[in-house]
Amino acid sequence: MLYSLLPMIQPELGIKDFQAGRLASAFMIVYMLAAPPIGYWADKHGRKFWITLGVALWSVATMASGMAVTFTTLFMARAAVGIGESCYGAISPSFVAEHYPSEKRGSVLALFSMAIPVGSALGYIIGGNVGQIFGWRKAFYIVGLPGLLLAFLTSRLKEPRVTIESVPHSAFFSYRALFDIPSFTLVTLALAAMTFSLGGYAVWMPSFFHRTWGMDIGKAGTIFGGITVVSGFLGSLLGGWLADWALRFNSRAHFLVSGAGLVIGMPLAMAALQFSDFKTSAFFLFLAEFFLFLNMGPLNAVIVSVTELKSRSMAFAANIFVLHALGDAISPMIIGAASDRWGLQKALLGASLPLGLAGALCFWGMAHYDRDARKVVHA
What we know:
Layout: H1 2-13, H2 17-45, H3 48-65, H4 71-89, H5 92-97, H6 105-113, H7 115-134, H8 136-144, H9 146-154, H10 171-178, H11 182-213, H12 217-246, H13 253-272, H14 278-292, H15 296-305, H16 312-325, H17 331-342, H18 344-352, H19 354-374
Helix pairs in contact: 1-7, 1-11, 1-12, 2-4, 2-16, 2-17, 3-4, 3-8, 3-9, 6-12, 6-15, 7-8, 7-12, 11-12, 11-16, 11-17, 11-18, 11-19, 12-13, 12-14, 13-14, 13-15, 13-19, 17-18
């Protein structure tokens, strides 16, 4: 939601593009640094507490963003949101996956992961329009408050594991062992490359609409959010269903579907940035996001399939750390700096290139998947 409000926040607080990029980086850096210890503690002691804490904390921190009076106070609030989301993001995928058999996890995790594009899109739509009518501060209050109710609901969840399995005492060696699994390493690097690009789009695309076509922030946020919610919904659901269906014929289908979507999506995204006609640009952006979101469920299913039950929260935490450290923790700043120098269009075009690398890493992962999955005792 923050990004749809940047055109209002920047002039009031005197924030330049590079500083605006740092706001996104503050969230992501804290998010990725908090995830590994939280994932380790959750695998040792249980996960429901951390999920509930995460939802409550990011809701309170979101409301605190509306109280910011300087760049520094807004920066601190965004960092606190990162801690809250790390509790949820590192733990909830394995929590959900363990309720379902392996042959349904691609579809289930696609449905679960669909919350990312849908939630982001609603943030753009609600944030942009509420900000346009009531101001950017009240937008943060309105969006953050319902999260406290959701925190109460998560406290009622049931832990799917009968017992908490023993986790090795050394967190360092526990995490180090995960990267001895080639499929896990490759899927993590692929997601990092994709996140570099998509994280940049999330921060800067509403501003691109505003600067290129002169849209007000409400309209820019609504249109970009609408494109993202529809393409994310359809792409995520189709990707999960298609990958699970294709497992009947190819055990490596989760990697295959994900890689194909990334390779197709990259040129479509670059084309969307270069059309002078807005409707054509929006159409190509929709197609690009549709294909890029095919991997939301399948790649999470790969992580579950190649890691042991006792270390799955750690696996997702390690994945979060790497994909954000190499992805959207740095891309908003890099794009902002490039925009100040060469313009936002060229900066976004350059940020699209890692999507092709992400697809290539998925195809590479196919060579290792069967062997890695056979080593795991599934639950």
